[in-house]
Request: fold
Amino acid sequence: MAQVSRAQLTVASGMTPEQYIQSLVGGGIVISNVTFSGNANQIGTFDGVNSNIGFNAGVVMAAGPIDGLLGGPADVDTGQPGSGLADNDLLAVAQSVNPQILSTSDAVILEFDFVPSSNVAAFNFVFASDEYLQWIGSVFNDVFAFFVSGPGITGPYSSPAGFPGGSANVALVPGTNTPITISTIHPTSNAAFYVQNTGSSHSMNGFTVPIPVELSVQCGETYHFKYAIADCSDTYLNTSVFLEAGSFVSDAVDVTVATVSGDSTIVEGCTDANFYFTRPEGDVADTLIINYQIGGQAIEGTDYNFLPDTIVFLPGQDSVTVNLSPVQDGLNEGFESVTISVELVNICGDTIVSEGIIYIGDGPILNITESDITVLCASDSVPLGASASGGYAPYTYTWTDMAGNPIGTGDTIYQATEENGSIDVLVTATDFCNFSGVDTVTLTQNQTLEIDTIYVGPATCEPDGFVSAIVIGETTTPDHGVYYSWLNQSGMDGPAASVWTDLPSGWYYISVEDAVCTVEDSAFVELLDPPIAALTANPLQGCAPLLVSFDYGDSQNADAYVLSFGNGTSQSSTVIEQMSQTYDGSGSNVYNVQLVVSQGANCADSTQLQILIDICGCTDPNALNFDPLATANDGSCIYPVPPEPIVSAPNVFTPNNDTDDTNELFELDTENLQELQLIVFNRWGNIVFNETSVDPDNDNPAWNGEIDNSGKDAEEGVYFYKYIAVGLEDQFTDTPAPVVEGHGFLHLLRK
Reply:
């Protein structure tokens, strides 16, 4: 059987037509005369447990290959032709929805005869199509139908010989006589039955909810059934019908068993089981009372709970559950059976017996096999093992110390000891039914070799430290003595002796081996009071000449100090004192100062800092004394000073329009102004002229001898004037522009 899976949907092909039908049939249905038409790749079984189809399993038929159903909605089946087979009955169904559909192709048809055991036969299906939603109402609506013929059924569609009433299509929108297509079930028509595919379990754009079909039939009579699906008008895009496994039924009361283990066995004190009673399909309108028989080796009320004598199906109730709970009695009885059987005479007059059997097993006694362990050396990691028997496999193992702290799981753990003596470890074995047993495992250490003491001598700045190990309890043989090995923190080997001398500060590791064990230890050689250099300076930067004071008073553990000033000079001292240096910047503008402090001949520490000398001057290019080499502005910039404003005035003018056109206007002579206001008064203080100019050089205020420019001449005589002159601004500084005010008198003559 070929199987293909993608995402959550799995499909398989390769079964016989009879096998496909038998997978659909449940109780009360007898099948015969199975036929199939179409390509074998258009039919198969499906596993929909993790899909959004709505059925766990069943048979799927498609207008194209069924592997085109795999993937998500984005995986478009661009059209793989099927059988090419046409079907007139399917064409008639399609035309009843859209008369413009003219042809069918790629039909796949599964037909069979069946005999029901009751007056109802039922099954469940889901219709799906990749034509949703784009082709709703078009001539490309693929078609499917379920054609039924037999006693009491008439219809317009063809039927085999022996079924003269024709056949009827029962693939209808629930509660209507309308065939199901993408044009009759979609988001705006019968939307309650439509599902838009937003998942990834299959490639169909849309599909229906699970739809039940219930047929009114006559018990014991033969009926003919035809599953059929085909393309309409083209072979593009796929359409399919999913038929639920075991849903084609016409049965009596059915008894099934469900246990935790998945088979028919349960365990005292561990698991319960359920008997499921299911009434016949289509027989849900009335109350149904069922008497059943209890048998088997187990005793009701002793080995399990008392069960009710009868089962009552209320109207509308399809199933009833009876729980069986075994009693833990501690007796070794082996497996004991409980049997429930139901006899029911159907409307055909047949006696149908349905039976369920459950086996009750004893609660277990768990035994644990383990062994105690003796070790000679510390830190030896040895396996501790346990094996359980009795109970119900599989077993789980939990290891704890005597205080209940967990230390491992599994049938084997590795455990080490750190000191001589015995420790106990608890192991608990638990079986499938959660029955458990506990045992103790003892681990004993009997080591004699021991590093009793490690002596450490600290190092100074000279490598003069040492480590020395003292061992006790060594075990030797003629062929094996006591061996020492040292290692420093850099991985370098030391002497094969108990003492290592002339050492710098650091960690040292020793391993001692006798004829039985190896022990290890470590020690740290400290460095006593290393010198530490510390240096500060004030200031760190400035203009030359720069006097800098140096302070190294925070230095530690030194007996000699050398300060190099970075200008070729240095100063030494054996005590902490203040030092200073003047930098003129003649050689460089950066001086690297270094302090070296030492203790003895070979122990020293150093630190550095920088002194920066600035080139000071005027850094403003607008200044008269701009210095392009300067790196720091010293405030010496000198800027051009704008000229002083100058204002002068005549004392007489003759606005008489004489021929020489001389002295016709009274105006001020000015220089270096950006604004000028001129005001003229008569001898009674009245203003006869007032004018302001912001461009005196080109538009100097001038009085023409008229009163306020009215065209009326002022009288001859003495007049007084006042001016307010604003000088030029200083563009390089924030100095406000100078303001000059003045006044005087003038004579107006008209001769």
